Amino acid sequence: MDMKRDYYEDIQMLPSAWEGFWFVVLLAALALFPLLGGNYYCYLANLIAINAIVAIGLNLLVGYTGQVSLGHAGFFAIGAYTSAMLYGKYGLSILIALPAAGFTAALFGFLLGLPCLRLEGPYLTIATMGFGMTVTQTIGHWSFLGGRMGINTPKLQILSWQLSKDTEIYYLIIAVAVLMTIGARNLVRTRVGRALVAIRDSDIAASTTGVNLTYYKTLAFAVSAFYTGVAGALFAPVLGFISPENFNLITSIVFLGMVVVGGLGSIFGSIAGAALMTILQIQLSAVQDLWLIGPLISSISTRWFNVGGMANVSNIIIGSIMVAIVIFEPMGINGLYLRSKRFFKSWPF
Amino acid sequence: MLSQLIVGGLAIGSCYALISLAMVIIYKTSEVLNFSQGEMAMLATFVSFYLLADKGLPFWLAAILTLAFALLLGVVVEIVFLRTAKNPNVLGLIVITLGLEMILYGVAGWRWGPDQQAMPFPIGNTEIYTVGSVTFSRISLWVFSLALGLMAALGLFFKYTRLGVAMKATQQNHLAARIMGIRTKRILSFTWALSSLVGTVAGMLIASSYPLDVNMMMDPMMKAFAGGVLGGMVSLPGAAVGALSIGVIENLFGGYVSLEFKSVVAFAIIVLVLCVRPSGLFARHYVKKV
Q1: A249 in B contact zone (CB under 8 Å)
Q2: Is A248 helix (H, G, I), strand (E, B) or coil?
Q3: Average pLDDT of the residues in B52-79
Q4: Domains of chain A, residue spans
Q5: B281 in any annotated domain
Q6: How far apart are CA B122 and CA B108, in angstroms?
Q7: Is residue B103 within 8 Å of residue A319, measured between CB atoms?
Q8: Is residue B7 part of a domain?
Q9: How do residues B111-170 score in pLDDT, each as one tens digit?
Q10: How far apart are the first and last CA of chain A?
């Protein structure tokens, strides 16, 4: 069933007519979603889509090229502040501010990629982490960008169309997210994507077969930063208010968690990981209101723990999921999906 | 002014140095980058706060119990989280310790809440000595001498004891060490216990002069990590020198250039140093052979 007969079949975007059909169904479902879900569910979907763009971008770097980054909150912040400045302070259209934010982040990604060329392991981690913290600190002390108090972002407007409600912003975000997903899928099946995977598997072997390491490693940083910057630009209007608090080290850790939980080197996995982590974060931030678990945790809190620190339960759960995924299912949600697919295909054997 | 800043930098730098030694001990033996070092120390420090403030134990007893808790925590973490992972790669190990950091942070935050506490410490912060134009408190003198003593003890431990040599052997070649009869799994547990102990000493020293809350180890751990990387991440004296110089440079930068960007300067130095020497100052650059 899955047999590939030639090379062109291997690199097709949509391998069969069935998959094309399901793709159209998915697009229709995404387009109709605001009619069924209310404003709140659209807000949730917006956050998921934004995090999915970041996760795909980070996966291109971590999962496909094998370079660890703990500084993606920095690119996210650069994108968010660039777009908020361009359309908030200078009144440019979001259609210009969005790519501008992406390219600004990509420029910083390129610059960070240069010193990171020779680094690996702990050295690469500390360099990217330092980059992320430097960006946050710089924003926090720069009064032009609102400093530690943060800035309000005005409502979006495309030509004469006011995007004031979450259901309206949804269309913009989903359109961008679908385009970026297709872009990433297209990238990894081309020459560039194969070069990145070759670098991940063995950079020495890749360079001996003619892959230009300098070019492709910095390219991976730049593309990854572009994705994250665009996501940041979309994040600012969804929240309506941004401050350096939104872009701290925990944000970077959660981004990396999304990629690992979803599955390294898988675009479907990135989206699934982003959805899972976003929903968990939102639901667990008000853990006492949850059905069944909420009262239990409240009573544990009053008995042995501290009611004031109950929000920290979300850290425990998200951390446990990250650890459990690495220990039990290193391929993440994508691995679970592949395994269950294989199980049903060969059932009852 | 200058000597005063240097003395202040050495005092905080010696706390960084202890944490950075704790991270290097683990990285040397098992190549795990322990991001949860700070939170392990923070949790143990909160345990000592609980024993001192809520149970009213005398300080020496609370300190001994805390250190015992730290040893136990290190062993439990190694057995539950690291040993169960089957052949994880570098990224997998980083994600495990990052997840562990979030778990420990969540547990401490859940139990003690977001409020700041004052650690009841037997040595006050108010006694001040003056030598020439430099003033320093009695507590910073204690911090500095305790840190130096512990570093020296660690150096001697790795050089002269059987256990220390066995740890070095495990780091150099896991398989050969096993063949020579070293119980490498037990060595790894012991490594985590030792590192947790060293980190906890640093945590209690930091809590003596800074407010105690769940975020207290975030910043020191980053600086300690930076110091360790500066020293090459595999060399104990390198880590100590790196962390001390981070403390001094950061204090000088804060005093003369800009107080606001004080905490960024450590990372700027790191990136510049790594550009020139990709494996830190004290480690030989390891060139992969094919």
Answers
A1: yes
A2: coil
A3: 92
A4: 31-345
A5: no
A6: 24
A7: yes
A8: yes
A9: 888 888 888 777 766 677 777 777 777 778 888 888 889 889 998 998 899 999 998 888
A10: 17
Give the separation between CA B15 and CA B20, rounded to whole angstroms: 9
The answer to whether position B21 is within a domain reads yes
In this complex, do A134 and B222 lie within 8 Å of one another by their Cβ atoms?
no
Q: How many domains does chain B have?
A: 1
CB B216 within 8 A of CB B112: no
CATH label of the domain that carries residue B186: 1.10.3470
Q: Which member of B33, B99, B112 has the closest CB to residue A323? A: B99
φ and ψ at residue B212, rounded to 5 degrees: -95, 115
* H or E stretch at A36: helix A17-36
Structure tokens at A247: 């872009």
Q: Do B33 and A125 touch (CB under 8 A)?
A: yes
Residues A187, A192, A195, CA angle at the centre, nearest 5°?
Answer: 130
Q: Are B210 and B216 in contact (CB under 8 A)?
A: yes
Region A31-345: CATH code: 1.10.3470
Which residues in chain A touch residue B257, judged by CB atoms under 8 angstroms apart?
A: none
Q: Please state, in angstroms and rounded to a whole number, the distance separating the CA atoms of residues A336 and A322.
A: 15
Judge whether B288 lies within some domain: no
Task: Write the DSSP symbol of residue A89.
Answer: I
pLDDT beyond 90 at A60: yes
